[in-house]
Write a structure and sequence with these properties.
The structure is a single chain. The chain is mostly beta strands. About 15% of the residues lie in helices and about 65% in strands. β20 and β21 (about 365-370) form a beta hairpin. The longest helix is centred in the first third of the chain and has 40 residues, at about 15-55. It starts with a helix and ends with a strand.
C-alpha cells in the first residue's frame, strides 16, 4: 500500500516539478513585496504624524481649541490655528483661520473671515471654503485682500488691495475691482468706483466722481471729473481741468483745451474741438461735423452750423455768420461782416465787400442778394 502511494507521489512530482517550483517562488516574492509596501506606508504615516505634531505642539497647548491665540512665528503658537479666534496676537508672523474680534501683530495672515479690528505691519487674508469677507477696521502698512471682499475701512501707509471694498485710505495706492470710496496719496485704481480722490491720478473703468491732483481716467462712463492737469473719459457728464478729453460724447467740458470725438453739450475754453457740439465758447472753436452755436475768435465747422460769432468764421453751410470775415465753403443763408465769401448764396450778404462765386453779380458792396 505504501509503495503505491509513493509511486503516485513520485509521478505527481515528475509530472509537475516546474509548476511547483514556480508556485513557491511566487508566494515568496508576493510576501516580500507586501512587506515592503507595508513598511513604506508605515514610514509615510509616521512622517505625516511628525509634521502635524510639529505644526500643533511647537509650544505648550498648541492644539488647544481656545478663542485666544498667541503666535511667535508660524508654526510656533499657543492655541489651535484652525480654531476661529476672538483675540489673536502675532509677535512676528501669525497664520491662523478666521478672527472675529481683535488681531494685532507684525505680519497677520488669515484664511477666512477677519474682523472687527485688524492691526499689523502687513495684513494678508485668503478666502476659505466658508468665507471670503473682511469687515471692520484694518490698519497696516500693506493690506493684501486681493481675493476677499472688504466691508469696512482699510487704512494703509502704502497699499490697500481688495476684491470689493467699501472705504480705502492709502498712503500710496488703493486697488480693487469695485469700490465705494477711495482716497490715495498717489492714486486709486479700480474697475468700478463711486468716489475717488487721488493726489496724483485716479483710474477706473466706470466712475461716478473723480478728483485727481494730476489727472483722472475713466475708460467708459463717468459723471464728474475734476483734475489739475487732465481728464480723460469715454462718456463724461462734466469735466473740469486744463485738458479735457472725451473719447465719444460729453455734456460739459470746462478747461483750456477741450476735445470730444462725438456729440458734445457745452465746451468752454481756449481751444475747443468736437464732432457735433451744441455750444462752443473759446478763442478757437472747431466742429468736425456740425455745430449749433460757436462763439470765439476763430470758428470752423466742416459741415452745417446754426450761428457763428467771432473775428473769423468758416463753415460748410452756415445759417448765420457774424464776424469780420465770413467764409461759407458751400452755401450761405445770411452773412454779416466786413468781408463775406461764399460759393452759393441762398439768402443775403451784408458787408463792405461781398463775394459770391456762382451769383449773377459775384462782387458787390454793402448788400448782395442770392438768386439761387
Amino acid at each position: 500500500m505504501n509503495n503505491q502511494i509513493n509511486k503516485k507521489s513520485s509521478r505527481v512530482l515528475n509530472l509537475y516539478p516546474k509548476r511547483f517550483i514556480f508556485f513557491l517562488l511566487t508566494v515568496i516574492l508576493s510576501s516580500t513585496v507586501r512587506s515592503e509596501e507595508a513598511e513604506k506606508d508605515r514610514i509615510i504615516a509616521n512622517e505625516e504624524i511628525i509634521e502635524k505634531e510639529s505644526e500643533e505642539k511647537d509650544l505648550p497647548y498648541g492644539d488647544v481649541k481656545t478663542p485666544i491665540g498667541i503666535s511667535i512665528r508660524y508654526p510656533y503658537s499657543i492655541g489651535s490655528k484652525s480654531t476661529p479666534k476672538f483675540i489673536q496676537g502675532n509677535l512676528l508672523f501669525g497664520k491662523v483661520a478666521s478672527v472675529d474680534g481683535i488681531q494685532v501683530g507684525l505680519w497677520n495672515k488669515n484664511k477666512g473671515r477677519v474682523g472687527i479690528v485688524n492691526i499689523g505691519f502687513v495684513n494678508e487674508i485668503e478666502p476659505s471654503s466658508f468665507s471670503n469677507t473682511a469687515y471692520g477696521l484694518h490698519v497696516s502698512l500693506w493690506n493684501d485682500y486681493r481675493r476677499v471682499n472688504m466691508i469696512g475701512l482699510q487704512i494703509s501707509g502704502l497699499v490697500n488691495e481688495a476684491r470689493n471694498s467699501l472705504f480705502q485710505v492709502g498712503g500710496l495706492i488703493n486697488g480693487s475691482e469695485k469700490s465705494i470710496f477711495q482716497i490715495g496719496g498717489f492714486g486709486n485704481f479700480t474697475h468700478e468706483s463711486v468716489f475717488q480722490v487721488g493726489v496724483f491720478i485716479n483710474s477706473a473703468n466706470k466712475a461716478f466722481f473723480q478728483v485727481g491732483g494730476f489727472g483722472n481716467d475713466a475708460k467708459k462712463s463717468t459723471a464728474i471729473q475734476l483734475a489739475g492737469i487732465t481728464n480723460n473719459a469715454r462718456e463724461p457728464f462734466l469735466q473740469l481741468s486744463i485738458i479735457n478729453i472725451a473719447d465719444r460724447r460729453s455734456k460739459l467740458q470746462l478747461g483750456v483745451v477741450n476735445l470730444s470725438d462725438d456729440e458734445t453739450g457745452i465746451q468752454f475754453g481756449a481751444f475747443n474741438k468736437a464732432g457735433k457740439p451744441f455750444l462752443q465758447l473759446s478763442g478757437f472753436n472747431m466742429a468736425d461735423n456740425r455745430a449749433n452755436l460757436q462763439v470765439g475768435m476763430l470758428n470752423i465747422t466742416n459741415k452745417r452750423v446754426g450761428l457763428q460769432i467771432g473775428a473769423m468764421n468758416n463753415a460748410g453751410e452756415p445759417f448765420l455768420q457774424l464776424s469780420g470775415i465770413n467764409i461759407a465753403d458751400n452755401r450761405a443763408n445770411l452773412q454779416v461782416g466786413v468781408l463775406n465769401v461764399t460759393e452759393n448764396l441762398k439768402g443775403i450778404q451784408f458787408g463792405v465787400i461781398n463775394y459770391c462765386i456762382k451769383c449773377l453779380f459775384p462782387y458787390t458792396i454793402l448788400v448782395n442778394i442770392g438768386a439761387n
